[in-house]
Amino acid sequence: MRCRSSRSVRLAACLASAVLVGIGSAAESRPSFVGCPSDGMSGPARAPRRAPNLPPAPKGASLYASDGLLTIAPTGWHCAGLYGSNGSLLIVTPGPISPKTFMESDATVSGPVVMIRWINGDTSGRFEAADVAARVFPSEAAFIDRVRQEARELDETIASGPTATDEIVRRSPTVVEYVTPAATDGIGIVHPVVAAAAPIRGAIVLQSKSEMNIVQLVMRLDPPSEGLAKDIVAAFERDHGSWPEGR
Description:
The protein is α+β, with helices and mostly antiparallel strands and 247 residues long. The chain has helices spanning 99-103, 126-136, 141-153, 229-239; strands spanning 33-35, 38-40, 61-65, 70-74, 78-83, 87-93, 113-119, 167-172, 175-180, 200-208, 213-220. The protein has one domain. It is built from four helices and eleven strands. The strands form two sheets. The chain has an eight-stranded mixed β-sheet, sandwiched between helices. Strands 1-3-4 form a three-stranded mixed β-sheet. A hairpin with a 4-residue loop joins strand 10 (200-208) and strand 11 (213-220). Helix 2 crosses helix 3 (141-153). The longest helix is centred in the middle third of the chain and has 13 residues, at 141-153. Mean pLDDT is 86; it is low at 1-29.
């Protein structure tokens, strides 16, 4: 699945796609690349092959890509992609995972994780997009109000504003960084990621105002990987999770 297409996510409850490429002074010229298999509403999708001319990743990191999404994450981790009617997800964790881990069970992630969520605001993902926008992009009030009215009729819930415990830093009208504190609900708690003893950090980009497509980075690193955090966030804000076609 490509971020620019009209396809989207629904992980057995809700799911969600994009390029994160590494930057940094300690970058390698050709980092390792891991293709991640995906599964979703149209069936399994094979792991993508390395695209030419991918930018480097920091030392100790690799590039992980599902069909349409790419992120840098610590070398040696495992990955899976998910997609559905409202968007797509790329999940990278230290332990083995597969799309079936999430498609066929109520599995959650309470440990270290790097996850990219792409929400298609022009399809069934509009409810998730409006919920995120209500918390961090209040300037999109017309879209939020329209979807909120529709949500009431369908017994869906849209946030009324920012979560009190989240720390939000606005980088531009369409880019925010956030921290959801440890053991706390907030904007960083996105299924299958659950609250745990460590905080979640990340960033959110309003990728398309016309379609209200939103991309979110959800990141909880273990101590040995903390040095990669700034590179992961910076790459996400630079590339908004898109990566070259033709792989």
